[in-house]
Design brief:
This protein is an alpha/beta fold and 338 residues long. The chain is 56% helix and 7% strand. The C terminus is likely disordered.
Length: 338
């Protein structure tokens, strides 16, 4: 059953929409903006279902004919605007929004149009949509979903209710993953940490076998840093550089390892780790490193992340980065605060 209660985070947005439904003050157009996986389409579909629900409440009942049609993806009063090319063109908007908008709803009170990736509308398409936004019929509701609201014309943004979706807190995402997917605590926390506040991305990370493989590779790498083994460093450099598509995830996983070192150094065994199965190695490395060394390791990874996509020799850059991380173990002690 679809319900606003299923939405993870952004409660103010769902409450706003439910209140608008209850008071009969639904706007003719909305803009849901936010990063991919944040829940924009998830909310839009529940909003559409509630607007058309035959029980006429602020929640879709999940049982009436309209709700069952929504669940089956064949509700006649809901149109998912699609594109035939890399952009949403003027013909897409005219044929899928403007012309159908002139037809009254088949069964419900509203005709609803969901435009996903709305930032991909070209200027002509946006201007075509603007004509409908300026003189919408009472039954028309348009919901634009986009990750880059600034790419929409100001004339568009000024005529719609903008609801920006904010990143969801890690704890809420962890609870969602553990409850819905029965994922172990440590794995849910790792996925949440990598997802940047996006429940959808967190779910994808948690289910990704590739991510688990990368995690295991990063664990082997970080455990080997105290050893100044040149042959091993060459192999690790080649492996990291070759996996260019997953390098960003690898860097985040490496930063989470250093985060664990800091947590253990500050709180000991009471600290909650992202790599709990490696607590012994985490403890050994935390004891061997000063806070200054850990700060330098974070800075090294952050600096590499910022320049990894620049036009440089990636393998050489990875070698330098790993060498600097390793040096933090055997160029000790440093005076704290230097």
């Amino acid at each position: 059953m679809w319900s606003f209660r299923e939405v993870v985070g952004n409660r103010k947005i769902t409450e706003h929409l439910q209140e608008a439904i209850s008071r009969g003050r639904v706007a003719h157009a909305y803009l849901f903006s936010g990063p991919d996986g944040i829940g924009k389409r998830f909310v839009a579909e529940r909003f559409a279902a509630a607007l058309l629900c035959e029980k006429k409440g602020s929640e879709p009942c999940g049982q009436c004919r309209s709700c069952l049609q929504m669940l089956g993806g064949n509700q006649p009063d809901v149109t998912y605007v699609t594109r035939t090319k890399t952009v949403i063109g003027v013909d897409d908007i005219r044929e899928q929004v403007n012309q159908p908008m002139s037809i009254k709803p088949y069964a419900g009170k509203y005709r609803i149009f969901l435009i996903d990736e709305a930032e991909k509308m070209n200027e002509a398409a946006q201007n075509a949509l603007l004509k409908t936004l300026e003189e919408p019929p009472a039954y028309g509701v348009i919901v634009l979903l986009c990750s880059r609201a600034e790419r929409l014309l100001e004339t568009i943004r000024s005529r719609i209710v903008h609801l920006p979706f904010l990143p969801v807190g890690d704890e809420e995402i962890v609870a969602f993953l553990m409850e819905k997917y029965q994922i172990p605590d440590y794995r849910a926390r790792l996925a949440a940490a990598l997802a940047g506040g996006s429940p959808g991305m967190a779910a994808a990370f948690a289910a990704s076998e590739q991510l688990q493989a990368r995690r295991e590779a990063v664990v082997r790498l970080m455990k080997s840093l105290p050893s100044d083994d040149a042959h091993r460093r060459v192999t690790q450099t080649k492996e990291l550089a070759a996996a260019k598509e997953s390098l960003a995830d690898d860097l985040e996983l490496m930063l989470l390892w250093i985060r664990d070192l800091l947590v253990y150094k500050a709180a000991g065994a009471k600290g909650r780790l992202m790599y709990p199965e490696e607590a012994g190695e985490i403890a050994r490395q935390a004891d061997a490193l000063s806070y200054e060394a850990l700060r330098r390791m974070q800075e090294e990874l952050s600096a590499f992340r910022a320049k990894k996509d620049a036009n440089v020799n990636l393998e050489t850059s990875v070698w330098i980065m790993l060498s600097h991380l390793s040096e933090c173990f055997y160029k000790q002690p440093w005076e704290e605060g230097t």
